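Key result, reporting period 2: structure in, sequence out.
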């Protein structure tokens, strides 16, 4: 706007105010105007149609010459709003804009006036979200409704009912028989999604009953109960024809009519376990109880023992399966079934009555003894129960002939031609007679005790004590000789050999036997030469060294 225009507007405004002031002064001087009529002269505009009857009564809303409306004057007319403000009820009592009770946040915060007869006095259009501040917040399906669905166009908004029947009386399928508190069963999201706690009636809805509609049991609009017992609804379904009474729930459940949940142990103490968990009709061909609760009451025709084992089938057989048997053989008989015995059928050993005593020794069942009684009746000393031959545990070290050296690597059959183990001899010759290289056999030459020279570790590792066993000690040069050096030819295979020097050294005797066969008189075993006789001839006189002479002679003749 230009400066000229601004100046012109200021001048016009001053003139108008001057004219208005002059008019007021003239009226006052003439005594023809009251305070109210004077206020009307300065009114900012016409009132709305609702307040048009107050056009000449400014004091109904304003204190004299006060431009701001006073809340106390508003609620003087709008009494219901005043109650809401006082008790924090409704939109006026709950809306955050009305939290402060001063005129600065008065009614004019939302409502306007002096804008003409046709003006809308609500400053802001009512937002659906603000419904939460009323006594009836919108929830569920109510959020989608138009305002006119509950609020009549010409009626105050507060006049809309808050009880369900206020809008849904015509929808009440119960015809008012269940009262007006629809919300006790129905929700706002869906009319059909009721939340009635049926347990309050003493009859909780469980299992398959949950899938039923109310009308499935209640034929009347007031939902009067048809009865709380099963037969109230299921009398026509009773296959027992009333023979078992009306307490159907003692056997049947609500989840499904079958399978049953009967506690059969209450009937004669006979629990249905394992293979007995069969349909009722498997044992009960009619509703009447059975004549007995023993195994033979039902299984007499199945008794393969023909009564030989009595009537206490459960002492051997189980209910989960007729086989395998849970019979504790060691606890009941003192004879444990282990190894291969555990796999045997009862009739393998028990061919007659089960209470007939059986032998406990191995020979009682295993009379075919391949040892011909040589090893006694305690088969378990050597044999195990898992396998008869692969589980042998005989310790030969405790036998008459302990195994040493190469004997430990031999198979039993190497020495024992049959299971009659005692038939094998304990002497070396019993097995090695054909191996005796000594002429005439061991018993004719060196005897049967091969162990005096040979050992089990190695046949050729000979440990012959020549001095102890022949009386001829191998000393000096003799100690390094082989057996063949003296036992040549046929004598090698015989025990005999002369112990005089000439027997071996005659061929090398330079004296041609002139000094006899006792070469040791002059010669030593340590060295054949020089001869001791020549040393004596060359030695000093005994008078000069007697001790040396006797010492030397003793040393040479000692082994």
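The corresponding designed sequence is given below.
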């Amino acid at each position: 706007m230009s400066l000229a225009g601004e100046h012109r507007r200021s001048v016009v405004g001053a003139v108008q105010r001057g004219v208005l002031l002059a008019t007021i002064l003239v009226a006052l001087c003439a005594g023809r105007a009251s305070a109210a009529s004077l206020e009307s002269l300065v009114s900012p505009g016409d009132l709305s149609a609702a307040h048009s009857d107050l056009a000449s009564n400014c004091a109904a809303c304003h204190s004299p010459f006060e431009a701001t409306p006073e809340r106390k004057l508003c609620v003087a007319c709008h009494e219901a709003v005043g109650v809401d403000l006082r008790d924090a009820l409704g939109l006026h009592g709950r809306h955050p804009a009305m939290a402060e009770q001063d005129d600065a946040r008065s009614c004019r915060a939302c409502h306007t006036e002096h804008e003409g007869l046709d003006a809308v006095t609500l400053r802001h259009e009512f937002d659906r979200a603000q419904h939460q501040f009323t006594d009836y917040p919108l929830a569920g399906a109510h959020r989608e409704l138009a305002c006119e669905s509950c609020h009549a166009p010409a009626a105050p908004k507060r006049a809309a009912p808050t009880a369900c029947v206020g809008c849904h009386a015509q929808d009440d399928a119960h015809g008012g028989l269940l009262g007006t508190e629809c919300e006790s069963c129905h929700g706002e999201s869906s009319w059909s999604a009721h939340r009635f706690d049926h347990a309050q009636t003493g009859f909780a809805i469980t299992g398959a009953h949950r899938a039923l509609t109310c009308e499935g049991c209640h034929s009347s609009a007031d939902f009067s109960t048809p009865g709380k017992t099963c037969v109230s609804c299921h009398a026509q379904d009773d296959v027992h024809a009333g023979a078992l009474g009306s307490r159907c729930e003692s056997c049947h459940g609500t989840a499904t009519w079958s399978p049953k949940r009967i506690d059969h142990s209450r009937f004669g103490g006979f629990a249905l376990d394992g293979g007995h968990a069969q349909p009722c009709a498997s044992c009960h061909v009619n509703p009447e109880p059975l004549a007995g609760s023993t195994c033979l009451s039902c299984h007499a025709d199945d008794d393969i023992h023909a009564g030989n084992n009595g009537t206490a089938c459960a002492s051997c057989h189980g209910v989960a399966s007729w086989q395998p048997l849970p019979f504790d053989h060691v606890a009941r008989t003192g004879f444990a079934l282990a190894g291969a015995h555990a796999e045997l059928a009862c009739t393998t050993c028990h061919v007659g009555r089960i209470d007939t005593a059986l032998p406990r020794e191995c020979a009682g069942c295993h009379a075919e003894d391949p040892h011909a009684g040589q090893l006694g009746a305690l088969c378990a000393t050597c044999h195990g129960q898992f396998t008869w031959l692969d589980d042998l545990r005989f310790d030969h070290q405790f036998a008459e002939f302990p195994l040493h050296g190469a004997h430990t690597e031999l198979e039993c059959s190497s020495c024992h031609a049959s299971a009659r183990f005692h038939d094998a001899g304990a002497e070396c010759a019993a097995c090695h007679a054909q191996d005796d290289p000594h002429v005439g056999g061991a018993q004719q030459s060196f005897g049967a005790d091969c162990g005096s020279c040979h050992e089990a570790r190695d046949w050729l590792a000979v440990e012959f004590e020549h001095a102890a066993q022949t009386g001829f000690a191998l000393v000096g040069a003799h100690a390094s000789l082989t057996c063949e050096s003296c036992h040549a030819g046929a004598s090698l295979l015989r025990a005999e050999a002369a112990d005089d020097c000439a027997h071996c050294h005659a061929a090398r005797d330079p004296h041609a036997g002139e000094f006899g066969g006792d070469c040791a008189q002059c010669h030593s075993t340590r060295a054949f030469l020089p001869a001791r006789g020549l040393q004596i001839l060359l030695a000093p006189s005994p008078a000069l060294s007697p001790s040396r002479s006797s010492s030397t002679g003793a040393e040479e003749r000692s082994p």
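The chain has 18 helices and no strands. Residues 1-6, 536-559 have pLDDT under 50 and may be disordered. This case is discussed further under Risks and Mitigation.
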